[in-house]
Amino acid sequence: MADKYDDYREALVVEEDTIWPAGVEVADKAKTHRALHDSADQCAGMEYVRLYTGFCRKITASAEDIQRVS
User: How many domains does the chain have?
Assistant: First the structure.
């Protein structure tokens, strides 16, 4: 379930995770991962997973998200 961008939770993000779409080739996953998480407020499939030490920002990337940051 997608969450809305939350400034409070963003301040407590200690991990980042990206779920890549099947069938979509990504040339440079590290660069695309960084770009997606830098613009997390624009990603449709984002959720915050509660951890003991804070939150993990988990982005389920769509083909449109990848195209937007490329």
Answer: 1
Tell me if 68 sits within 8 A of 26, measured CB to CB.
no
pLDDT in tens, 20-44: 999 888 889 999 999 999 999 999 8
Which residue type, as a one-letter code, is found at position 19? I
Cβ neighbors of 15 (< 8 A, separation 6 or more) are 51, 54, 55, 56, 57
Of residues 61, 59, 41, the one with CA closest to residue 49: 59
Residue 40 lies in a domain: yes
Percent of the chain that is helix, strand, coil (3-state, to 5):
35, 25, 40
Six-digit token string for 62: 């769509």
User: Which residues span the domain enclosing 53?
Assistant: 7-69
- The dihedral built from the CA positions of residue 32, 38, 40 and 44, taken in this order, carries a sign that is negative
